[in-house]
Each structure stands twice: as structure tokens, then as C-alpha cells.
Amino acid sequence: QVQLVESGGGLVQAGGSLRLSCAASGRSFSSYAMGWFRQAPGKEREFVAAISWSGRSTYDADSVKGRFTISRDNAKNTVYLQMSSLKPEDTAVYYCAARSSYSWRNSYYTRSDDYDYWGQGTQVTVSS
Fold first, then answer.
1. C-alpha to C-alpha distance for 89 and 61, rounded to whole angstroms
2. What angle do CA 61, 55, 86 make, to 5 degrees?
């Protein structure tokens, strides 16, 4: 069983920055591909960013490309989402996800169904 705990959300003005963290339990974190998703009120959950378990491959959704950066520290069992140039449309609950199923060293995953564990989410609100 893997537990994921997100932190770092909050209220920020448009143009500002936040860094989300996701701390994972367990000894196998370094073998998990990880991802960030978000869900705004009244909308479906959408993919934001993903990173391979090696950390060498990342992929961002077009909506956040050039503004958000995903990274990981396997020694700390933590994945991060650095968010810059935030916009009101980035307002959502942000979820961290872990894939414990087998994945190739440099593979990343963009579908919700690819992930086995989810955090409880952290709210990000961007005011205009």
C-alpha cells in the first residue's frame, strides 16, 4: 500500500508561483512513475504533468507547458510540481498519483487509469 500526501497549495495572485509537494510512503518510490492531475469545479480531472521513475523523462500538458515543471527526489520519496505564471484557469484541486505497476525506466504516463494510487488533493486558487 502506498500513501501519497500533497502539500503546498494555497491562494495566489495571477502571475505568481507555488510549489506543490507529494510525499510518498513505502520503500519502492524510486520505481514508481508519478503524475500530477487537477480537477476544477464542474470539470473532469485532467492530466497536468508526469515523470518517469528514473526522473529522466517528463511530459507536461499543453495548457501548462513552459509554466509548470515536474521533478522528483527519490532520496526524499517526494515529487514536486513547480508552478509559475499562474492563471485563474489553473484554479483546481491538484492530485498526485503513483504507478506501482511495472513501467520502463524512462516511461511516463498521462492517463488516470495508468496510476494505482492517489493522494487526497491540495487546493490551488489563483485570483485575478
1. 14
2. 35
